[in-house]
Amino acid sequence: MNWGTHPYGMIDETVAEIRAMRTHSTSAVAVKATRALADLLDREYRTVDEFERDLEHNAGVLRRSNPSHAALHNAMRDVERSIIGEATSVEDAKQRLEETIDRVADDIETAKGKAAANAAEHIEDGDTLLVHDYSTTVLESIENAARDGAHLTVYVTEARPRTLGRKTARVLAGIARVDTRMVVDSAMGYALRDCDRVLLGITCMTGGTYYNRVGTFPLVVTAHELGVPVTAIGSGAKQIEEFRFENEFRDAVEVMREPVEDVTIENPSYDATPIGMIDTVITDDGVAE
User: Which stretch of 10-24, 88-102, 263-277 has the lowest confidence by average pLDDT?
Assistant: First the structure.
């Protein structure tokens, strides 16, 4: 397997990128973190125990870089379970790690693709959809449906404060047979009245709660009030038991560039929505309603 160049600081660089949320897709984060562990292949170890301790430490550092990402958590745990206590030598441990990195990254991408393919089967020609923020799985499902001949109208919320909806709109604009329309977040009620369905990505589902980018909860509540069904799409790895989700609070400057005296700005990254408010959940494992 040709891994290319992996400098010693690849793990540190990946941790910094994840913490800064420069990678918007949670699946992409999990893949990037998994591949960053290839750093260990170039390091020298005297014993298997030394290798395993370093693997546990670095997988833990990567996992804690974003405690809200279930896919990241599962990927790091998968790598650890596949290596710790299994190797008979340092050389064997490195070989197992190389193979495991490839398998775990491939499993994440495959699951994401299957979820998108399953979702595309539920998108019909002539549908008007609404999407929020930026989800590569949602985008892939729309692209699949359009490629299969469906003509679609897709509303995109701007997704403030990071305005990731603009990135989504640019991608959708490049897909044939998709009429892309953008609205500000507060115009979701206006857009939903024309929509057949809301399509959302998944950050995490655990303990009866669906976690996704901020703005998801009011969107789901509004859709529910207007009778527009909501579908959440993502890898089954994002459904996890006994997981303590931790919200992230980003820099206040994203909300207001100049500070205002006696005003505290709160800038959460994620919303918590009862899973019971989601009409359909589509993963690589199938469809649950």
Answer: 10-24
